[in-house]
Amino acid sequence: MRELTVNLGERSYPVLVGPGARHGLRSVVPSRSTRAAIVTQPGVGVDVDSGAEQHTFVIDDGEKAKSMSTVEELCSGFAEFGLTRADIVVGVGGGVVTDVAGFAAAVYHRGVAVAHVATTLLAQVDAAIGGKAGVNLPEGKNLVGAFWQPVGVICDTEVLSSLPPREYRSGLGEMAKYAFLGVPGLAEMELEDAVASCVECKARTVAGDERETGTGGRALLNYGHTLGHALETTGNYDLRHGEAVAVGLVFAARLARQLGRIGDERVAEHYRVVSGYDLPSSLPRGADFATLLAAMGRDKKVTGGGLTFVLDGPAGLEVVQGVPAEAVLATLAELQ
Ligand SMILES: NC(=O)c1ccc[n+]([C@@H]2O[C@H](COP(=O)([O-])OP(=O)(O)OC[C@H]3O[C@@H](n4cnc5c(N)ncnc54)[C@H](O)[C@@H]3O)[C@@H](O)[C@H]2O)c1
Q1: Active site residue ranges
Q2: DSSP code, position 317
Q3: Which residues pair with 53 in a beta bridge?
Q4: For 56, phi and psi rounded to 5 degrees?
């Protein structure tokens, strides 16, 4: 088992990676915590032992569970259970659970400790690390949230064996992103090494830019996500998050080439990585360009600079503002 660290001064925390890592949960629970509220979903099926008196709260499956009403129900449940400021919330699940449990922990009693046992590949390499927690509103995804760093994260690679194949592949979509964020040789690594390498990259990025303040650092973790989010939030494209990101990665590469920032070989590398993980690299049938363009214009990275993307270039990935709509539309047409 590996122990990595997210270095954030007094808010630093360990990330345990490897088969059986869930058995290390007790080591990250603060000794003052006498109660633990375990937040999970019906299909997760991962038992944990926090070492404290624990009660399990089961939330619904899917994006609809990432809501203010789930957080309200959880907080009421925590109060009935007698959870105090000294106690802990433990999220056991994928990104939906870690986002909701993290946000409930951030607001209950104005903030109680949270630890995550990440049980999807996507949560292990991305969602559970970095302290972004939140829920959706009818008006949009992740519109309400907080930065609330966990006291520890557990990435037990053993529990991934029960993941439905499509969920596993969705995690590979986020993994593919790291190949372009400077993690070499991912595709050839054993699972444990690959997860640890992604965690290391995310930890380093978060440590350098905890609150995503600049246009570098944490913003680069959105590589492939501008089109990815647009595909997820418009139409009914039946794409999991990582699948949408995979299409977004190839789109971003083609857009960078369209703008003369990279050459054909680098575009081909994006295709190789994405298809190597058996992920989609073209737009879903019937994709509506105008709707996608409008959704990309509303992306949260946009701060008045027009259409904004994380794009590859001679100096690696960077945030590029003011990308012409014609270039975006031409690239969408290439991807059909
Ligand atoms: N906070 C962040 O930094 C961040 C980053 C990326 C994504 N996210 C969020 O993560 C969410 C997506 O997360 P996800 O892809 O993990 O999906 P998910 O949480 O919906 O999990 C997918 C499905 O797998 C089930 N499951 C989980 N673990 C299992 C296991 N070991 N065996 C069998 N089934 C299991 C879940 O119950 C669920 O049905 C999105 O809401 C996204 O916004 C957050």
Answers
A1: 110, 132, 174, 202, 212, 218, 222, 225, 229, 241
A2: -
A3: 35
A4: -100, 130
